[in-house]
Amino acid sequence: MASTTEILSRAVAGLNGLATVFLLVGIFRIKAGDREGHGKAMKWAVITSALFLAVYLASKVHLWVALGRTNVTYAPDPASAWAGLKSLYLFILIPHVILAIAVTPFILRAVWLAKVGRLEEHKRLTRWVFPVWLYVSVTGVVVWAFMEFSGSLARAAAVVR
Q: Which residue of 111, 122, 123, 144 lies most exposed, with the fewest beta carbons within 10 A?
């Protein structure tokens, strides 16, 4: 049976993946001229991302309580194919974290601009906010895949049990 650490990590990845789907639906809807469909998809992208943040923070609290630290270390079995990928993992992880923090207030601003009908400003802002948000969502799943499939999560979870 999966540990709390693994369940929370999988939930975080699932919410990131779902946010990616809503983001893509949203961009396809606006490109098709469907403002209402775009608005609905983006509303769900924001809700899913907010749920992601709540579960992500809960996972950090869980790790602190269970392990006395807030992160799981990327530690693949040295004999596995994942062992030689730590540099790639860090190359993906570091910009993911920096951009996730940096883009959040701009997402909120973009939502507010759309809500108050300042659509030209919304459009100008989202030309760069959207691809960054999409990148963060996709790379969140990729980071999870590294941790899951390298065995790093299972090893951390074994310490908690």
A: 123
Are the C-beta atoms of residues 5 and 72 closer than 8 Å to each other? yes
- Among residues 91, 83, 60, the alpha carbon closest in space to that of 149 is found at 83
Q: How far apart are CA 39 and CA 160, in angstroms?
A: 42
Helix or strand (DSSP H, E) at 59: helix 35-67
The two tokens of residue 142 are 């990729």
Q: Closest by alpha carbon to 48, among 12, 3, 15, 70?
A: 15
Residue 127 CA to chain centroid, in angstroms? Answer: 19
| List of residues 6+ apart from 63 with CB closer than 8 A | 5, 69, 70, 71, 72, 156
How confident is residue 161, by pLDDT bands cut at 50, 70 and 90? Answer: low
Q: Output the six-digit token pair for 151.
A: 């065995």
Q: For residues 151 and 80, what is the distance between their CA atoms, to the nearest angstrom?
A: 9
Single pTM value for the model: 0.91
Residue written as token pair 């910009």: 95
Cα–Cα dist 118/110, whole Å:
9
Percentage of the chain beyond pLDDT 90 is 81
